[in-house]
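[Q] Does anyone have a clean structure-token version of this?
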Amino acid sequence: RRPPRSTPKRSSAASDVFMRQFSRCGLYLLTVSRDRSWRLFRRAGQHYEPWVGERAHARVVWDGAWAPQVSERTEPPMFATASRDKSVKLWRLMPNEQDKQRPHSLIATLHVPDAAVSVAWASAHALAIGLENGDVLLYVCVGEQRDTWQLQMRLARHHTGAVHRMACRPPGAWIHAHNRVPYQLLSVGDDGGTRLVSWDPW
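[A] Here you go.
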């Protein structure tokens, strides 16, 4: 069974759009679609206009997500795309859109054992990937440029079906002296279940 999809909408994408998400700064809109591509729209006044995109995967792209930014002034936006081709790719926009022809760069590709259905950022240095077989993979960044990531934990059969959607508690929210757990991950699976787990990256 395929993951649920958004209502098909024809715009600059060549096929069905599965996910739409605004960047945290509100300047960009990310979409991913069946034609194996992701696309960015950029705010222009009260509207969003097609800006840049890439057919970056070998199979359908199921999900995409923007990373939290430590500082919007000094840190360019970064996002991830998850695909049936068993990979998650991490992208970064160029500071001040320096390259007008290609204002983005691929900084890392994470190869996973099954189709990547969903993706969620716990922080700018921690990422969760939901697979079609029900597993959830938790990755942490070990490189200063965020180009090197390692698998920290695998939640095997976290769901008995595809992990359709995931969301992480906003970084730092609700942490106090009696609850020092850095991350919490909420997931929804094809099995009809919703699961909440705490995740300590250290």
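[Q] Thanks! Anything notable?
[A] The two ends are 35 Å apart (CA to CA).
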